Amino acid sequence: MLPGRGRKKMLTSTAVRYLKRRVEKSPRVTAEELRKDLSDVDTEVSAQTIGRTLRNEGLHARTPRRTPLLSPKNKKSRLQYAKSHVDKPQKFWDSVLWTDETKLELFGPMDQRYVWRRKNKAYEEKNTLPTVKHGGGSIMLWGCFASAGTGKLQRVQGTMNSLQYQEILDDNVMQSVTNLRLGRRWTFQQDNDPKHTSKSTRAWLQIKGWNILEWPSQSPDLNPIENLWWDLKKAVAVRKHKNVTELEAFAHDEWAKIPVDRCKTLVSSYASRLKAVITVKGCCTKY
Questions:
Q1: What is the pLDDT of residues 181-199, one digit of tens each?
Q2: More confident residue, 175 or 54
Q3: Architecture of 1-64 per CATH?
Q4: Which residues contact 182 (CB under 8 A, 6 or more apart)?
Q5: 35: which of 64, 214, 278, 281 lies 20 to 30 Å off by Cα?
Q6: How confident is the model at residue 32 (pLDDT cuts 50, 70, 90)?
Q7: Which residues form the Tc1-like transposase DDE domain (predicted)?
Q8: d(Cα 50, Cα 48) in Å, to the nearest integer?
Q9: Which segments of the chain belong to CATH 3.30.420.10?
Q10: Does the structural domain 72-279 have CATH classification 3.60.20.10?
C-alpha cells in the first residue's frame, strides 16, 4: 500500500446514504436484510460491515422501548388533554394528588444483574440468583403522592375489584390530602382502569364530591408517579428481600424515604410533559 493512501472504503457514499435512509424509514430492518438489498445492486459487503458503518453514522441497534399501543383516538385524546392543560398555573399541579397501582415481584427484573465470575463457577452461590417455582409471588400496591411528598401506600389484597378500590380510596386519600396539606381545592388523579371508571366507582366518587382530573387513556407517561414507582423498585431490589412479607415491608420503608425534592421536581416540570405530547402530536414521549 502506498504511503498516505489508507484503506479503501468498502461502501460508497451513495450506499451509505441509502442505508441511512432505509433505517430511518424502517428502524426494524436488520443488517442481514440490508446486506441482501445491497447485494441485489452488486454491492457485496458483510452484515458486520453494515452494522459498523451505521454506528459510525450515529445509528445504533438498541432494544426498542416498550410503550402503550396508541390508537388514533388515543392520540387525539392525549393531544386535547395536553393542549387544554398546558397553561394551567403551577399552583394547580401542586394541588393534584397523583395515584396509581404497581406490581412488585419477589424476584423481578430489577434483580437480574450481571455477575463477574470465572469459568466453571456459574453455580457457586455468590454467582447465582435464588428463585422459586412460579416466580415466588408478587404484591400489588396502590400509592399516591403530590408535590409536597409521598402519600399513603397500601397493599392490594388478591385481585382488586371496584369495591376494594373504593375501600382503598376511602382509607387513604383524605388522610394523604391532609398530611400533604393540599388544601380544600385539591384535585384527584386516576387513570382509566375499568375499576376506576366503573359505574359504581363513578357513583361513589360523585358522592365524595372530589374534583377529578380528566384523563386520556393509555397515558402512563403523563403520570409522574410512574417515575416514583421506578425509584421504589430500584430501592427495594437493593434490600435483598427473601419473601413477600419483607418485600412489602421494604416497599413501605423505601416509599417513605423518597425525598420531597424528588416529588416537587416531578410535579414542577409537568408542563414539559404536556409540551412534549403536543410536539409529537399525541404520540408517546420519553417520560
A1: 999 999 999 999 999 999 9
A2: 175
A3: Orthogonal Bundle (1.10)
A4: 95, 97, 146, 148
A5: 64
A6: confident
A7: 96-247
A8: 5
A9: 72-279
A10: no
